[in-house]
Amino acid sequence: MTLLEGRGLSKRFGGVTALDQVSFSVEEGTIVALIGPNGAGKTTLFNLVAGALKPDAGQILFAGEEITGLTANVTCRRGLARTFQVTRPFATMTCLENVAVAVVNSPRSRANGTWRLSAHECLKAVGLGDLAHIEARHLNVVQKKRLEIARALATRPKLLMLDEVLGGLNTQEIGQAVDFIRSLRDEHHLTVFWIEHVMGAIMQAAEKIIVLDQGRRLMEGSPEEVVKDSRVIQAYLGD
Ligand SMILES: Nc1ncnc2c1ncn2[C@@H]1O[C@H](COP(=O)(O)OP(=O)(O)OP(=O)(O)O)[C@@H](O)[C@H]1O
Ligand SMILES: [Mg+2]
After folding, report:
1. Per residue in 138-197, pLDDT tens?
2. Residue with CA at minimum distance from ligand 1 atom 17
3. Of all residues in the chain, what percent carry a pLDDT higher than 70?
4. Cβ-Cβ contacts under 8 Å for 182 (sequence gap 6 or more)
């Protein structure tokens, strides 16, 4: 079943066409990657889906219902959660408090009295259980990305949208991160829509890859199809 579908999405910023009639689908229970060169329009597509920006044209459907132009708090209520490419935790609040804000403000999570437990579970799920009482400003970049994921999980999403969460990891950590993202899908029954430049991780984890280039959908296919596609090699992967 298709969980998320974009139809002919376009977005302009002044003279810049960030997205030009892009259509795509994300099937329930899968991990779908969104790749492409810097400025291809990946984050803009996330912003349209999650309700941070309104498209100039096109439609977005989530779980069979149209969500085009709905605001972020409404899409969150429907079960859509995203992380930000540039993390922005509440710096002087602890990790637990950062996640608790998401738990308490989410109509989907059972906040009544159990917020502390819920927030702790989310921190544990991302491997930050031991840092619950550390202020977010003391986290390193990798830990801040994980805190972002914990805050997204706290809203009990159906669809988790990750915007470049692997930056700064070494090869071994990337392997662990791939296992972790797979486990999110398997244990939390999530669908994952994932922007990433780390191709090794995408190749291991994604069932489908959508490639954007200069605001257009260049192609979509299995990891094997994408890496040997001459257009993708020329526009993004290189030799
Ligand atoms: N709020 C904005 N105002 C003006 N231009 C914008 C805005 N957001 C994005 N753009 C422009 O739209 C284009 C697509 O940007 P976007 O951030 O979606 O790319 P991206 O694929 O996420 O790139 P990266 O891999 O560098 O994160 C770029 O030319 C960018 O400069
Ligand atoms: Mg981006």
Report:
1. 999 889 999 999 999 999 899 999 999 887 778 888 888 899 899 889 988 899 999 999
2. 43
3. 97
4. 31, 205
**What is the predicted pLDDT for the residue at 111?**
57
Task: Give the ligand whose atoms come closest to the C-alpha of residue 48.
Answer: 1
Are the C-beta atoms of residues 9 and 60 closer than 8 Å to each other? yes
What's the gap between Cα 51 and its chain centre? 13
Q: Which of 109, 135, 156 is the last residue of a domain?
A: 156
Report CA(110)–ligand 2 centroid distance (Å).
32
> In terms of residue numbers, what domain contains 134?
80-156
Question: In this structure, which ligand is nearest to the CA of 236?
Answer: 1
Q: The dihedral of CA 194, 197, 201, 203: what is its sign?
A: positive
Q: Of all protein residues, whose CA lies closest to atom 12 belonging to ligand 1?
A: 18
- 61/93 same-domain check: no
pLDDT at residue 113, as a whole number: 63
* 239 and 162 belong to one structural domain: yes
pLDDT at 173: 82
Ligand nearest to the CA of 38: 1
Q: Read off the pLDDT band of 52 (50, 70, 90).
A: very high
Pocket lined around ligand 1, Cβ cut-off 6 Å: 13, 16, 18, 36, 38-44, 85
Sign of the dihedral through C-alpha 110, 116, 117, 118: positive
What CATH number does the domain containing 227 carry? 3.40.50.300
Token readout for 24 is 């795509």
Contact 126, 76 (CB under 8 A): no
Q: What is the CA(209)–ligand 1 centre distance, in A?
A: 20
Report the amino acid identity of residue 179.
D
